[in-house]
Amino acid sequence: MTIQRLAGGAQGRSRATVHDGRVYTVATAPDTSQDVAGQTAQTLAALDKNLADAGTDKTRILSATVYVVDIEKKDEMDAVWCDWIGSADNWPQRACVCTGLAGDTLVEITIVAALPA
Which listed CATH number (3.30.1330.40, 3.40.50.620, 3.40.50.720, 3.30.300.20) goes with 4-114? Predict the structure, then answer.
C-alpha cells in the first residue's frame, strides 16, 4: 500500500499522511498572538484544509486529540470546537489533554479521519 504525505511548513514532519483509507493530520494556529478561542478557530481552519487536500472532510473524523496549555481554558476551546464540528452525526471520539506546547501555541489538534469509500 502506498503512503501519501502532504508537506507542511515544519521540518521533519508532514501536515497530513494518507494510508489505508485513513488521513492522519495535525495543526496549530499560525498566529499565536490570539487567545485560546482564536487559536482554536485557526487550527480548525488549517485542519479543514488538510482534510480537503487529503480528499475528505470533518464529517468523516474518527478520532481527535486536543492538546491545550491551560485546562482552565478548555471551555473556550470547546465552544469553538462544538460550533465547528456541527451536529451529533459528526461527533468523533475526542480527548483533551493539558500539556506544554512550543512558544506561544495554546492549542494543537491531531485528527484521524476516514476517506470516502
Answer: 3.30.1330.40
pLDDT tens per residue across span 91-111? 999 999 999 999 999 999 999
d(CA 116, CA 57): 9
93 vs 35: CA distance, rounded Å: 25
- Residue ranges of the chain with per-residue pLDDT less than 50: none
CA distance to 30, 33, 40, 106, per residue, from 103 (Å): 12, 11, 16, 9
Type and span of the H or E element at 32: none
How do the domains of the chain map onto residue ranges? 4-114
Q: Do 63 and 92 form a contact (C-beta atoms < 8 A)?
A: yes
Residue 6 · residue 53 · CB < 8 Å: yes
